[in-house]
Prior knowledge:
The chain is of the alpha+beta class.
Amino acid sequence: MRCATYCTDTMRCPKCGFRDDKVIDSRQSRDSSSIRRRRVCLQCSYRFTTYEEIERSELRVIKRDRTHEPFERRKLVSSLAKACEKRSISLVTLEQAVDEIVHEIETSGREVTSETIGAKVLEKLRGIDEVAYLRYESVHRRFEQVDQFVDAIQALGRRIKPNPSQRELFPPEAVNHGSV
């Protein structure tokens, strides 16, 4: 990265190591969180790409055992990918969910509990895919017995899934009046 005039550090060409280059193209990422720059070395004419992104303050995760560790986006992506394995969920959908979770976490403060992260993941997965939701929930809530799975499945089944184009078959008032 080339720094502002007050900084003396510059990028080195990955091919020849020369310290002077020219930016030939700059583009913002889709989510506007980084800038992609195409560069050309002024000595050997090698073209290469660099990325600039905002340096964020370090977010810390408070684990269940009360230890602290730095937040790693890679772990979040990995856990979502495991839950969604062999499901027809696009990578774009997963990346968008991760971006939204990370944004929510970053705006909440400098420290976040692993339980809070897990709850946010469950909230996103519930809207994406119920099987992935159950997979993640079983790990997050540490299911140890089949009954816990059955309860979770029944809870999902009780969840109201409104469809605006379909009228209600048994409206609550008809059920109450019909049993009298």
